[in-house]
Specification:
The protein has 4 domains: 2-178, BirA Bifunctional Protein, domain 2 (2-Layer Sandwich); 203-283, no CATH class; 296-384; 426-538, Methyltransferase, Methionine Synthase (B12-binding Domains), Chain A, domain 1, CATH 1.10.1240. Helices cover 53% and strands 10% of the residues. It has 19 helices and 10 strands. A 5-stranded antiparallel beta sheet has the order 1-3-5-4-2, with helices on both faces. The protein has a 3-stranded antiparallel beta sheet with strand order 8-9-10. The relative contact order is 0.07.
């Protein structure tokens, strides 16, 4: 699972507008494209029962907290592609989250969305206590770290898979502990990551983290630090009471790379700050670098497209500037001509003419601005993932899952020869998978693994979907036909989609391995049938 806290950066709107908009977004049944997104919704600690009344109730309580500009906090819990939580699991996850944050008595609105490849849960909780009207600061501001602990508990209780680099895990005694196997990875700040996601290009912060961290950490004096950074094309400059590291003309705060890289801490280690000499190349903008090895060729094409669009924009701006200058000259000449011809008719007539000329000039300038805006919009290049999606949807999905693809692993659409011969293989494959993965696993994760194994055995997507519809206990038969079909569709979409291709590529099963697990499933099927027949024989009446 992944947990995110969405921080609001703009507070220009009133609390009522911000909270109302957030609740409406969370509980909306459809997204902006008209696609169904609401899978399940709930609320906690309200006096009223309708959505409209609960929204007013949350706004009213939030407005009592004058010391907080926005007391309602927005969290997102996201499951992996092969995981589908039930409504009971969602309710339990919300209860665990609120209890862990110390907000169990607070107003909460939550909803499970299904309009993306991942089921994700939105939680909007009012930190204003309904009785004391005090605004609670969960865990004294260290709520994100606590959220990771809660996620580890939810994963353990419900059988979800942990992220590869999760902060916490649950040990054998059932206690949440730090994940000692976690590799400390330097990650850019969210703003830098947004830039990388938009362009596919390494941010200045990532470049500094990759090139400068070891240099600064191992430096024994300021001269060595400056010389090392110069070799990798970076500059360390004092700014005010702190320091920044320049990537070309882009400044990155030194302490944001590592807390130990603040000017005060470096001065304690290296002595009083001494400026360094840097070569000319450290002042020029470095060439763009791809953030991932995935879709590298497409990214190079995208860079060429960016350059072309940038050149078109420069040409358009130059042309627009010439048009504005020409318009100003024509307007000036028109004003002078009008003044010359109308001056003899008196000041009143001249003022009337000036008024209408002024309005005409304003309309002309507005027309030029609108034309410039439309030209700018027409030449706007979409984000890399959208550009890639229009070009190749499959490659776009690979880009989406790029962090799961190890270097050197080739991901492709694979077809497997038919080795599975069971007419109804679900039960047999279920037993085989449970033997191979004895750890606690949610039913939807189990079904996803079963579907992936069946795909490798040569079963078709329709056959897998039919087996899931008829036999899976993950969705009880009390659910509607459409709900069961949607569940099977998402499981099959994972197993036969890009995420399944990646998991198969990482394992890279050989024909011998496929034959082996299929034989295991076949043996389990015969064992299951024999047990069933033996049981029937025993209970047969005399």
């Amino acid at each position: 699972m992944i947990v995110k806290k969405l921080k609001r950066t703009s507070f220009k709107k009133s609390k009522a507008v911000m909270i109302g908009g957030l609740v409406d977004y969370i509980l909306a049944e459809h997204d902006d494209r008209g696609k169904d997104k609401l899978a399940y919704a709930g609320s906690r600690n309200f006096l009223t029962t309708t959505v409209a009344a609960q929204k007013k109730e949350m706004i009213s309580l939030a407005e009592e907290s004058i010391q907080s500009r926005m007391p309602v906090t927005h969290w997102i819990l996201s499951w992996q592609e092969n995981e589908q939580p039930t409504s009971e699991q969602v309710d339990e996850a919300v209860s665990l989250f609120l209890r862990g944050m110390g907000l169990a008595e607070h107003q909460t609105v939550y909803a499970l969305h299904k309009n993306t490849g991942n089921y994700h849960l939105h939680i909007a909780v009012n930190r204003t206590h309904p009785y004391t009207q005090k605004v609670i600061q969960p865990h004294r501001g260290f709520d994100i770290n606590e959220a990771h602990k809660i996620v580890a508990e939810i994963e353990h209780r419900q059988g979800w898979a942990s992220q590869m680099n999760a902060r916490y895990r649950v040990n054998e005694q059932g206690h949440v502990v730090k994940n000692l196997q976690r590799r400390e990875q330097m990650k850019p700040k969210p703003k830098a990551e947004d830039f990388e996601n938009a362009t596919g290009e390494k941010s200045a912060m990532r470049i500094v983290q990759e090139r400068a961290h070891a240099v600064i950490q191992n430096a024994t004096c300021w001269e060595e630090l400056h010389a090392g950074l110069d070799m990798v094309g970076l500059r360390f400059v004092r700014k005010g009471s702190g320091a920044v590291i320049f990537v070309g003309d882009t400044a990155v705060k030194a302490s944001s790379v590592d807390r130990n890289f603040s000017l005060s801490k470096l001065s304690k280690r290296l002595g009083e700050f001494k400026p360094g000499y840097y070569s000319e190349r450290t002042f020029s903008k470095p060439a763009p670098e791809p953030v991932s090895h995935v879709c590298r060729e497409e990214w190079l094409d995208y860079q060429q497209e960016r350059q072309r669009v940038a050149e078109e924009k420069r040409h358009a701006r130059k042309k627009q500037e010439e048009e504005r200058e020409g318009l100003e000259r024509r307007q000036q000449e028109r004003r002078e001509t009008a003044s010359t011809h109308l001056a003899r008719h008196g000041l009143s007539i001249l003022n009337i003419a000036r008024h209408f000329l002024k309005e005409q000039e304003r309309e002309e300038r507005e027309e030029v601005r609108n034309k410039s805006a439309s030209t700018e919009q027409a030449t706007q290049l979409p984000r890399f993932k959208y550009w890639l999606g229009k070009r190749d949807a499959y490659r776009a999905n690979l880009w989406r899952f790029r962090k799961r693809i190890a270097s050197g692993v080739e991901v492709r659409k694979r077809t497997f020869p038919r080795v599975g011969t069971l007419p109804s293989p679900y039960a047999a494959y279920r037993e085989m998978v449970k033997k191979r993965f004895p750890e606690k696993m949610d039913e939807s994760r189990l079904d996803a693994a079963i579907a992936l194994y069946m795909r490798c055995a040569g079963y078709t997507p329709q056959e897998v979907a039919n087996e899931l519809y008829r036999h899976t206990p993950a969705r009880p038969h009390g659910q509607s036909r459409d709900e069961r079909i949607d569940y099977g569709r998402r499981v099959v979409g994972y197993a036969f989609g890009t995420a399944g291709d990646i998991d198969i590529a990482n394992i890279n099963p050989t024909p011998e391995q496929i034959k082996k697990f299929n034989n295991e499933a076949t043996e389990d099927a015969f064992t299951f049938v024999n047990k069933k027949q033996h049981f029937s024989y025993r209970i047969r009446p005399k």
